[in-house]
Amino acid sequence: MSIQVVPQRCPQNHRCPSVRVCPVGALVQEGHAAPQVDESKCIDCGRCVRSCPLGALRE
Ligand code: SF4
User: Where do the domains of the chain lie?
Assistant: First the structure.
């Protein structure tokens, strides 16, 4: 797995904007918690990393 979620950088009180940009539905968010990456779906495209304004996702 190359995409990592950094919970300390995520405010966890909002709808993660990166979930919408994932082309394969690999980024999932339960409520307003920090999102998780489904490794079985992720194709490492990096779109979620580029779309997070707080740098809470990294490759
Ligand atoms: S790297 Fe691409 S496929 Fe993987 S979680 Fe991010 S947006 Fe989705």
Answer: 4-58
